[in-house]
Amino acid sequence: MNLDQLRDALAGGLPLVEAPLRGWETRAALGVTTSGSTGAPKTVLLSASALLASAEATHARLGGPGTWLLALPTTHIAGIQVLVRSIVAGTTPVAMDLAAGFRPMGFAVDARPVLAAPGRHYTALVPTQLARIVAGEGPGLAALRSFDAVLIGGAATPAPLLEHARSLGVRVVTTYGMTETAGGCVYDGVPLDGVEVSTDGVISLAGPMLALGYLGGPQFGTWFRTGDLGRFADGRLSVLGRADDVIVTGGANVAPTLVEQALIGVDGVREACVVGVPDEEWGQAVVAAVVGSASEDVLREAVRSLVGREAVPKRLAFVSSLPLRGPGKVDRAAVAASFR
């Protein structure tokens, strides 16, 4: 997909869907296949109005349209939305060549024409990319500081990484959303204009950027139940992870996200993934893959004090990196398999 094809689809031209469309599906401008990180991959059908509503709401929140640096693949909604926002803004995005992977120096080079353009300047990254840039004081960080907003999504961003990036002068904006909401629809915990949030423990979302439905499946209603756990209070949403990721160990429910936050809060830990694996005694045992270095006793004590003794990992594995599935999303199934 290129910019001209997407512009045509948004204007009512040929839909960018690699399958025949029937009934309500014919209203789609674009089909995006999910990463499958929460189940089997599905093709999400999005209307032009949903994509445009998302782009316009983003501009309203960030302070107006601008020029974008595309640092994400356009096979996923986060990258596609950079193109949509550019079309709405009437600007031309600069696309990084990611064939050899993401490099901070490459980011710095490709940021130059974006930052030289008049008006506001934006980019969107996943947490891994942000971590690589802020790890050093090189040209990549200097360029990143110059953007008016840096959207971070694709996966939960560790709090220490956010704090470090912001302390360095990076204007980070955390985003929550999914392909089914045409991308991020909650920024820094606050819903974009037009977005409604409801939670009974599990987050549901509504608004003009909601997808039509899944290809070959039923059409969505007014509300989309995300399957994510969360709390919505005083107009701010806190996301606590996937409902189907909850670990039942010895009769107690453990939210992996809370354990991961406790582990990442320990000095020397950059990333962590917590999963449950079958266990004859406990039903499921809490285990953790950790990127970084720290004493196992210190890690377990951090979890015990912040989350509870039932959440303390039975096993810890130190790894050089976490397996990914989709843009910045940890492959939890692969992590679990590594403990079996």
TrEMBL record:
Residues 259-329 form the AMP-binding enzyme C-terminal domain. Residues 33-192 form the AMP-dependent synthetase/ligase domain. The keyword Ligase applies. Keywords: Ligase. One of its GO terms (biological process) is fatty acid metabolic process. Transmembrane segments: none annotated. One of its GO terms (molecular function) is medium-chain fatty acid-CoA ligase activity. PANTHER family: ACYL-COA SYNTHETASE, MEDIUM-CHAIN ACYL-COA LIGASE ACSF2, MITOCHONDRIAL. Belongs to the ATP-dependent AMP-binding enzyme family. This is AMP-binding protein.
